[in-house]
User: Which sequence fits this backbone?
């Protein structure tokens, strides 16, 4: 039983009040010197008919202290409690060391499916830095839900359908110089850009593009063959970036996958009387909800992005019977999600309450905002390469004798980039700066990885320790106690991160352990003569190592043992 529950039970026994309510009222004093928990006695003023300071004094005198609490002290209207620090240290270390890597994991989600759609890149388009937040946040949520026992399903809703593929075919047939499978995505992008430039002078190109997209839709072998090749080529290239990022998908069912599933949705919308026709286009009127209409079919009968999203949502519910369905997509698409969620609701799909648009802010590079249209696209691959190269230089300087330097540079460089977008709440816009993300002393990925390597190095040099022979009373100094608290708080952070779909909560909890560990490391000599003290400090180091490694994993970083 945790301390707060034990204290609430003791207070309940004395006052006759509900233990649950008493537990909820328990606070944490602003300064650890004042105690570990505080009960605000004004909560009992009505029932006990006394002033809060008098209640605090009375409770202090008569309360039977539960195990693990060493002192109760009345201070004004509060009754403050002090935990028995060595007992607390023993219990936290016991929990972490016996659980090992599974510390913080749980079974709360057992048997429940959670769809996590993220990254959702577009075929024959750049995989650019704007896709980084979705990719990093989604992949982290995927790991977090799985760790809590859910069966998470990682979905890449590929942008692989629409008239742009007609344009790609026209451009390739006119100006392509080699077989598709020998092209790079960058070359395809160039062809696409050229199409737009030429179409300004020659609008008939657009008619040709429509014609070729129609051919894809009707299953013409040449058209479908080219489209498939564009897709294969793009997936092979992005696959390499996903591997570097440690990102995995269970499904690549993209927009094209829903081509044969939209008819039923449109029929259903019509049967429910939700469709109206305006200037030839078919739509769901949403004016009652202060939103523009959700267009379902264009005047030429073509389906739209939203039509495919409706079909995808319904398919996911049928196929996965999710308890939650998340869409990790930039806030620029807020309106789109509001609209199509509303349409799902109007259709009578009550499960739409379990769908959530997990939105996020923009990433820009220091020089300025990124945009595909102005040709200054920053490819994610280039950012990763630069990060790894710069990290390699720093490591060469810091630890010139490190074996495996390339592997470490890759883990730290890529990790720095991921951490850079995951360390703040999602909706904040991020400006990407090398000096910020690669700072080995700031609250960065490299710093967290470095602290992990430090723990490993301490344990390696000690060549083992005996956790059954330790004196936990040496873990009661401020630095050790703060570290133990940070370690104890970690499982709660994982749960909270899932509730709010905010990976930064895990990143910050892991960072709290890192800063606390480094303070502990500088305040306390670990390899002392007394084996009981040495064992206690090594056990604490091991517990910190376990938590930091898990935290790094959950946000998507590797944890090298040497740096
Ligand atoms: N491919 C789209 C884009 O790059 C993102 C897809 C988002 N997901 C969705 N279900 N609409 O803008």
Assistant:
């Amino acid at each position: 039983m945790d301390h707060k529950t034990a204290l609430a039970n003791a207070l309940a026994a004395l006052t006759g009040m509900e233990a649950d309510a008493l537990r909820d009222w328990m606070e944490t004093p602003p300064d650890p010197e004042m105690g570990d928990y505080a009960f605000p006695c004004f909560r009992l003023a009505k029932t006990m008919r006394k002033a809060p300071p008098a209640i605090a004094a009375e409770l202090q005198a008569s309360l039977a202290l539960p195990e693990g609490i060493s002192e109760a002290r009345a201070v004004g209207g509060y009754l403050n409690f002090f935990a028995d620090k060595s007992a607390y240290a023993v219990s936290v270390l016991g929990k972490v060391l016996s659980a090992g890597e599974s510390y913080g994991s749980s079974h709360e989600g057992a048997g429940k499916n959670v769809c996590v759609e993220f990254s959702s890149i577009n075929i024959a388009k750049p995989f650019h830095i704007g896709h980084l937040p979705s990719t990093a946040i989604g992949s982290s949520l995927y790991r977090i839900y799985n760790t809590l026992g859910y069966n998470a399903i990682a979905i890449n809703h590929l942008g692989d359908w629409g008239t742009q593929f007609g344009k790609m075919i026209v451009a390739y047939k006119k100006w392509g110089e080699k077989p598709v499978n020998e092209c790079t995505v960058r070359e395809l992008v160039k062809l696409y850009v050229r199409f737009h430039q030429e179409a300004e002078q020659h609008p008939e190109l657009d008619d040709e593009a429509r014609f070729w997209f129609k051919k894809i839709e009707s299953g013409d072998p040449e058209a479908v063959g080219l489209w498939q090749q564009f897709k294969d080529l793009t997936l092979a290239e992005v696959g390499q970036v996903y591997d570097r990022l440690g990102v995995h998908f269970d499904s690549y069912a993209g927009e094209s996958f829903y081509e044969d599933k939209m008819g039923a949705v449109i029929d259903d919308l019509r049967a429910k009387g939700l469709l109206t026709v305006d200037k030839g286009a078919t739509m769901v009127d949403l004016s009652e909800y202060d939103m523009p209409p959700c267009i379902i079919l264009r005047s030429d009968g073509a389906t739209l992005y939203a039509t495919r999203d409706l079909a995808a949502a319904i398919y996911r519910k049928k196929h996965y019977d999710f308890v939650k369905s998340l869409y990790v997509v930039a806030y620029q698409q807020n309106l789109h999600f509001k609209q199509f969620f509303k349409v799902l609701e109007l259709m009578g799909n009550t499960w739409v309450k379990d769908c959530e648009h997990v939105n996020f802010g923009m990433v820009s590079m220091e020089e300025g905002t990124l945009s595909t249209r102005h040709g200054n696209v920053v490819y994610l691959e280039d950012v990763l390469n630069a990060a790894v190269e710069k990290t390699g230089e720093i490591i060469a300087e810091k630890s010139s004798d490190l074996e495996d330097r390339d592997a470490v540079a890759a883990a730290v460089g890529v990790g720095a980039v991921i951490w850079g977008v995951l360390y703040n709440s999602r909706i904040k816009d991020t400006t990407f700066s090398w000096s910020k993300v690669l700072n080995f002393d700031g609250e960065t990925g490299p710093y967290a990885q470095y602290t992990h390597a430090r723990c490993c190095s301490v344990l390696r040099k000690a060549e083992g320790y005996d956790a059954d022979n330790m004196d936990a009373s040496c873990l009661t100094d401020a630095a050790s106690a703060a570290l133990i608290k940070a370690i104890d708080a970690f499982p709660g952070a994982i749960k909270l991160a899932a509730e709010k779909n905010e990976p930064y909560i895990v990143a910050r909890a892991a960072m709290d352990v890192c800063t606390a560990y480094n303070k502990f490391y500088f305040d306390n000599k670990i390899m002392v003569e007394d084996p009981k003290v040495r064992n206690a400090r090594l056990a604490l180091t091991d517990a910190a190592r376990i938590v930091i490694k898990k935290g790094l994993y959950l946000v998507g970083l590797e944890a090298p043992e040497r740096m």
Q: What stands out?
A: The first helix runs from residue 3 to 15. The radius of gyration is 29 Å. The chain has a mean pLDDT of 94.
